[in-house]
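User: two proteins, same treatment. go.

Assistant:
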Amino acid sequence: MAEVKPEDMVHHLPMDQLQGFEYCIDSNPSWGEGIALGFQHYILSLGTAVMIPTMLVPLMGGDDHDKAKVVQTLLFVTGIKTLLQTLFGTRLPTIMGGSYAYVVPILSIIRDPSYAQIADGHIRFLQTMRAIQGSLIVSSSIQIILGYSQLWAICSRFFSPLGMVPVVALVGLGLFERGFPLVGKCVEIGLPMLILFVALSQYLKHVHLRHVPVLERFSLLMCIALVWVYAHILTASGAYKHTALVTQINCRTDRANLISSSQWISIPYPLQWGAPTFSADHAFGMMAAVVVSLIETTGAFKAAARLASATPPPAYVLSRGIGWQGIGTLLDGLFGTGTGSTVSVENVGLLGSTRVGSRRVIQISAGFMIFFSMLGKFGALFASIPFTIFAAVYCVMFGIVAAVGLSFMQFTNMNSMRNMFIIGVSLFLGLSIPEYFSRYQQGPAHTKAGWFNDYINTIFSSPPTVALFVAVLLDNTLDVRDAARDRGMPWWARFRTFRGDSRNEEFYTLPFNLNRFFPPS
């Protein structure tokens, strides 16, 4: 066998900007293409916007009309939060949607005896929603203070490329329960969607129409439309008439009851459910979810920057984005969305799938959210897409985000046993500990202090949060004296400050010349 010459070996140099993107963060497609891509991001964001209210509103005592109104409100506020984040926050192309991290403390409020014993379902729904609103308003101060005081910027200086590998990877991998386990609940719809999407977006991505790779760029819209029609044909033909209730819920296209329950025109407004109520016990429990969503958002920001072909966000910009996330959570509390704020991970993955990381596309998507949330019937039509279809897409999108996290290993020395130990232990515990907590219906912490139970159960049910605690602790305490180069610190050194790299000004400067009034540090 011939000896391989060193010059024949392919050597891939580390790149702080991901290459091969058609449009990066500050370049824009044509208006027609941008509107189509923005609508595609809007459709993808509907999965979480519908799933969270569908899960929580019935437990709160609400009916289909209440659920439809919460979905509209969540979409409306998501559009506002996204515009604020892309204009004044990190300026990354990220959609600020609802967060599953808030489910544990919200369930604790729902189970509170003072609300659970109310006989009238609608009154119980209103009282519970007002309690959730009050807790969100109070707990949002954590993100606002950490962000605008630049305390989170100080904390982020302890983050190295090595420490971010398990955190960003588990932002995607940690959502595995919303992937194929949900596809399997209606495999005759979910599996064709998964196979068709992979085939069009990857194997046929070189198909061009007028020099535009239409299948790579718009395969999500095409696949959802085709499979949605296929699912409607199955429903109309009576394929699910005699099946189990759970199968009908996951497969039928007429089970959401959103269209019939929505008004033609409805504009959400602050305090629409009434004046929020405040409880120290509930607020303290909600603060744990705020911390979790802050950490998950930090990992998602790192992934979004990579998939927008931008440089890693400086600590100042990252902290600024967290401050605006806190404002977003405050808006969630004022409007009553029933959950808090975080980056939509699936939409971050779509940046990579389409190879379009343009900020303008996400802002157009935010416009669609606001517009269709006010036109209730039209928005409800799109929101009635079976969740199994979204779950199939999540299998791809969450995987892309996880791969972005693993790509940070290129900046580190993976021939170092120290680094392998840190990444391996962080990844394993980041998956194993939340899996242990998920086996308990209300979490394993059962003390008399309800807020403490919510704290423990919420924090340790989040894979990225556990991974961050483990990875950052080990990375900053284990043989750290001579490990700076192995950890990848030289690669990120110039991105620690706003003026450390000239590209930071190009990607992250505030619009309307606002940097004159808010000079970056």
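Protein 2:
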Amino acid sequence: MGINGAALSPTMKRPIQESHSSAAASPRLSTPPPPGERLKVEPSHAGSSRNGRSSSRSTDIGLDAVDHALRREIGRQHRESTPGASPSRKRQRINGDRFIPTRSGQDLQASFSLLHEDGSPATPSRQKKRTPHGELHYQRTEEANRTFSRLLRTELFENSIPQVSPPSMSPEHNRLSHGHATRSHTPPNGPPPSSLPSNLTPSTPHKNLFSYMSPRHSIAGHPTPSRTPQSRHGPNLDTRSEVYSLSPVRYGSQQLLLSPRRQPRAVSKVPYKVLDAPELADDFYLNLVDWGNANVLGVGLGSSVYMWNAQTSRVNKLCTLEDDTVTSVSWIQKGTHIAIGTGKGLVQIWDAERQRRLRTMVGHTNRVGALAWNTHILTSGSRDRSIYHRDVRAPDPWMRKLVGHKQEVCGLKWNCEDGQLASGGNDNKLMVWDKLSDSPLWKFSDHTAAVKAIAWSPHQRGLLASGGGTADRRIIFHDTVRGTVVNEIDTGSQVCNLAWSKNSNEIVSTHGYSQNQIVVWKYPSMTQVASLTGHTYRVLYLAMSPDGRVVVTGAGDETLRFWNVFGKRGGRMGEDGEGGGGSIRLQEWGVIR
């Protein structure tokens, strides 16, 4: 080991410099003596012959002082290069041309069982930021990440690790939770249940997890014979065999990569039409917007009801109440009749085509905030906590009175196919009534705030969605056939309205505090297809066009916004108003107000 003179302490430099000045050539160091002796520096022969001095002359240097100086200098350089680092043990020398990591002692099967759906660790992380390229780019990136995660699982573990599948939300499955973490329970002291599948039980793998075998043996279950595999009918020439594959991945992974991908649907973030709606009430418990089957939108503004024709974009005033206010509007399923609920508890039936009132029905003692049609049966809910069934063909004002809610009834929806009525109230209760029964079939008390948003699924029998207010913020899915809760998801803000798509298995929700957004969800995965913003107040009103292509939203900012969220129309609407943008025979309408 060479000694650098510059690295020595100042007190030890002088003897070395004196020896250099007295000789033309550098002195050579003799073999280091044992510890405790003096270090002798012998000049070269050339130097001794030039100066005529004896070669026996030597310079004595204290070995202990040199060793002490070297240790101090090495320690100082180590502290400067790795400050605060603890001394590490000497790395063992590896004799070989490659490094194979050891995985002994790691339970990889248990580790993968603890991963989330997207393959990320269970450690909570910050919320992902959306890329600035828009919702479509974000959906494509998420799909690519999920595909890569599945491919990596397949390649590393094949069938030894259970594949993650998205949770199902059908009523046939048990209740799952999205958004709310289920509190774990302390396991019993007894032995674990034997019903747990063996592939989900964590087990410690043997040493040498990745072992190298002879070519005549099998690796990961795939034979690697030394000659062409033979069959009973001759050589095996199956091109899909792993023996002849030139791909770095297995055949199953190739099929996964080559399988067609469903392209994410692009939804416009900008409404294609905005209408001013002066005096549109900012009241959570009212229902002032409804889109009829004849493609006419009815809106209650103050004490008047206005109609907007989607075919001609004309506006006309239907009526103005005397000394009263409009609290709800609802179109009949087929026809031109519209029901109007008032602040004094009256229910009026109007013929929109002839613009005349047909009848006025009494019964409620307070405002009527919810209306729902089932062919010729009109159901009304009021602040007086009662629900009335009315047959519009009969002369009696009502035929059945339902008492079940303890506070105002703010949501009503009929399931016309099964004859079930869903009602939501300010008492945080959701009730399901069978046909015209006086007592509820089911009572759901899962919400912790007022239940106004109610929607029946047109794609699955007995599937009912409901949304809670500011203190709840959840969308809960119910199975009304069995009377159970299927699933729930926390939306993060007040749920004001819900509506199922008529053409796809998707659901739209409008929200209030604090984001005022419109969200399109994909069911049953409940992934967001789009999130639309634009309203500056709570989005309290929602209606869907007859063809299911467009939704209109209303808010306390006194605007109506039309969103094209479910793609293009399949065809033109006929005379009966089915399937597209038709219109009824109404006169030319002028500008609103």
